[in-house]
Design a protein that fits this description.
Bound molecules: zinc ion
Number of helices: 10
Low-confidence stretches: 74-89
Structural class: alpha+beta
Distance between the termini: 59 Å
CATH architecture of the largest domain: Alpha-Beta Complex
Oligomer: single chain
CATH class of the largest domain: Alpha Beta
Length: 403
């Protein structure tokens, strides 16, 4: 296998030190992301917030690099060309991979980013002493030319030791806690105050090395390919890895939460903020039918049957997102929601809303569908999308019993 270059889209010294200790010397480039603006679009909790920020950081750095290299720049929010540049002089060498990360601490139902001031740090550390919270870290790994990526989360419960007021004051006076998520470090002066960690230690530092390895593996690559000095694992790079690295066509998301997440279930899913769809049903000539979609060959799960739906936006609740996706893909907007089936995977969920539709309403497919078809409940095609096939028996019985 060959060595791969990595660019870290973060100014965190702890993340850089984590990679270096693991034999990886990345290039570093700080992203210019308006974090409050990104967060103002995120409806969900800390997991969603760190995922949105990690992804925004990696995509922002990629957009800058592509611009410098003379590529057309795509807006990270609309996916439309934002501007185009003509290459002048030496072309910028694009890294093989770009990694963005973000961390937040969830404590007592609140989400703590960096405290920034001694007053806020004191208030938080006083509350946290002797108790525990969960550190969430989001990761986004992008292919350095196309921008095709994979995002993933790590979560770890952190138990803080009881601290005296003198210890808290001394720790704050060191300035260390002011600029780190949750007001503590586990790998610095704060280390002695962290009694133990349940979960991945490196995720608490700000970059989970095991998650990084899994993200690479999901793309057919090996963490050993990132080693700067040591030799990568012997053997050929996988076909999937070679193919992934060779893509140059820019990935242009329609919405900023479009993208793949490596779920806690071990599989890759579409929709960083989760996904939702509508199982529309009608009564037609004495039998109950559902509206199924044969997914276009180029789309995720192409060539299989499921229901119209897709990734929801960061700011949408599942029902709003599911109805929007359904309307885009069928042009049907008149529905009566009767219930919801949720497949909750922890880091990702798919909500299927069961909705009644008037007989006679016919769908108009968009580019995402090869075909849309009203199908009798007992005649659903055999080649269902695997995730939909798993939920179908429950959804079917709900549809059957709906008024
Ligand atoms: Zn999953």
């Amino acid at each position: 296998m060959r060595h791969l270059s990595l660019l870290l889209a973060s100014k965190s010294p702890a993340r850089l030190a984590t990679l270096r200790a693991a034999g990886i010397e990345p290039a570093v480039r700080v992203s210019h992301v308006d974090e409050p603006a990104v967060l103002s679009q995120v409806r969900g909790g800390p997991s969603q917030q760190v995922l949105a920020l990690a992804t925004a950081k990696a995509r922002a750095v990629l957009a800058e690099l592509r611009a410098e290299a003379g590529f057309e720049v795509f807006s990270t929010t609309t996916g439309q060309p934002a501007s185009s540049f003509l290459s002048t002089g030496e072309p910028t060498r694009l890294p093989d991979l770009i990694l963005g990360c973000d961390s937040m601490f969830e404590f007592d139902g609140q989400v703590f980013g960096k405290p920034r001031t001694p007053e806020v740090a004191k208030e938080r550390l006083t509350a946290m002493a002797g108790r525990s919270g969960v550190l969430h870290t989001g990761h986004c790994l992008l292919q350095g030319t196309s921008g095709e990526g994979l995002s993933a989360l790590s979560h770890a419960r952190v138990h803080v030791a009881p601290m005296s007021e003198a210890e808290i004051d001394a720790y704050i006076a060191s300035m260390e806690p002011l600029w780190v998520a949750g007001s503590f470090t586990v790998d610095g002066l704060g280390g002695p105050f962290i009694e133990h960690v349940e979960g991945d230690y490196h995720g608490v530092v700000g970059l989970s090395l095991p998650r990084l390895r899994e993200m690479l593996a999901a793309r057919g690559l090996s963490i050993t390919q990132l080693w700067t000095q040591a030799e990568p694992a012997k053997g050929e790079e996988s076909e999937a890895g070679r193919e992934y690295l060779s893509r140059t066509r820019p990935f242009s998301p329609r919405h900023s939460a479009d993208g793949f997440i490596l779920c806690s279930c071990g599989r890759r899913h579409w929709g960083l903020a989760g996904a939702a769809g509508i199982c529309a049903f009608r009564d037609h000539e004495g039998s109950r039918e559902v509206l199924l979609q044969l997914r276009a060959p180029w789309s995720h799960g192409g060539g299989t049957w499921s229901i119209p739906g897709g990734a929801i936006e960061w700011f949408e609740d599942p029902q709003t997102g599911g109805l929007r996706e359904f309307a885009e893909e069928t042009s049907i907007t008149e529905l009566q929601i009767r219930g919801c089936h949720t497949a909750d995977h922890g880091d990702w969920r798919f909500d299927t809303f069961i909705a009644g539709c008037t007989d006679g309403v016919e769908p108009v497919p968009d580019a995402e569908s090869t075909e849309l078809r009203w199908v009798c409940l007992d005649d659903v095609p055999a080649n269902l999308h695997p995730a939909f096939a798993q939920s179908w028996p429950e959804i079917r019985s709900f549809v059957l019993n709906a008024d």
